[in-house]
Amino acid sequence: MRTNWKFAVTVAATVLTGVAGAGVAQASSAGSAAPSACRPANHIAKITAGPASAGHRHYRVTLTAPRGYESCKLAGSPTDVRFSNRGSEIGVTAGHYGSQATVVTFGPGQPVHFDIQVPNTGRTTAATEASFTLRAPDGEIPGTSVAEGEFTVATGTLIGPVQRGA
Length: 166
Hints:
Helices cover 19% and strands 42% of the residues. By secondary structure, the chain is α+β, with helices and mostly antiparallel strands. The strands form four sheets. Strands 1, 2, 6, 8, 13 and 14 form a six-stranded mixed sheet that branches. Strands 5-4-9-12 form a four-stranded antiparallel sheet, with no helix packed on it. Strands 3-7 form a two-stranded antiparallel sheet. The longest helix has 31 residues. The radius of gyration is 24 Å and the shape is globular. It starts with a helix and ends with a strand. 26% of the residues are buried. The N terminus is likely disordered.
């Protein structure tokens, strides 16, 4: 019986040491890869007025990522775009324009932007926030990003594809 007890204790200690070691290895290997800049919680988005064009106002949504995040790939126009003014949702549905296939790299030191194109119809609504879902080359990135700034929207508002640069 004593031999069986020693054997059981030795096996248990070996198994526990192996499990503890595996947990540490997984934590260190998982911790070595930085979180993606494309995740909504890992970037900052601001809306600023852009230069107008014939018949349209333009607003630029610029995304920046702080240091410590891994670069990622984005493509096309954001989806599920919603606009609000001081917390109240505005019932304007946005379409999209431009190439939806161009891929850009986004991350620390690699800002990107997209355009909100608003027709000059005279019937615009003030907005302070846009929420949206970013797209990767192979589908949507989970979660909702939010950009803030003073801008207007109207029926016929379009969202351009993500492009390099601020």
